Amino acid sequence: MKNFICNTCGVQVGSSAAAPEKCLICNEERQYVNPTGQTWTTLEEMIQSQIYKNNIAPEEEGLFNISTAPGFAIGQTAYLVQEKNFNLLWDCITYIDSITIGEIKKLGGIDAIALSHPHYYSTQVEWAEAFDAKIYIHEDDKEWVTRPSDRIIFWSGESLELTSNMILHRIGGHFKGATITEWKAGNARKGVLLTGDIMRVVADRRWVSFMYSYPNFIPLPASTVERMAGQLDEITFNRIYDAFHRIIKEDAGAAVQRSAMRYIDALNGKLFNT
């Protein structure tokens, strides 16, 4: 029996004797099946290939990024957030090996894992078991969990305080349970948001954007973005880190509001005439 991993999205499924015919995550309009067909691997095969390694690098005091080279599947970045006596892994990546585990243990280990949305569930159970950690997923995305575990806590409501400085906020949009993390102590206590791609920092680092599907270019409704902007306006933050290591370093709160207005105007035909 093996826990197979989809090569396209990087999400691991429950134990089975043979690879599934379909990936639950990819066979849905927010993701896609590779044009060459559905293929699978396992974590054991990835490790044995000796192709991959994880890079762990500091961002600022109390924050490290974690990424896999060469890139695998979606290629997102995870973040380790350090607090006194509590470390949070924000979002997850597929590849994990003994070297990664050893390096993270030197940084204090992982007490909890929090996920922005199903595309980044990856091998979350492997990570949780390696560090004896709990996994926090909003209950509205429960149907997308492909490898069940007693370590998963399905939280409800609009916010969940993990510590006095780390708060999960369900803001929806990309998925119904789409979540961001507010880190109050980050950026010298000016506040940091870790957003996954619930909000993406775009090529022009003064702006963010919002999408229902990024690979298939399906936008969110104007009303949804307006609601999200209202929720975000109630959170104090100065910096954003997204899932692909793009950063708005200063005045990120104003950037989000400005970006939401531009997005809404574009959808409503007020931004341009072409």
TrEMBL record:
SMART domains attached to this UniProt entry: Lactamase_B
Domain Metallo-beta-lactamase as annotated: residue spans: 75-244
CDD domains in the record: YmaE-like_MBL-fold (cd07727)
Name listed for the protein in its UniProt record: Metallo-beta-lactamase domain-containing protein
Organism taxonomic ancestry: Bacteria, Bacillati, Bacillota, Bacilli, Bacillales
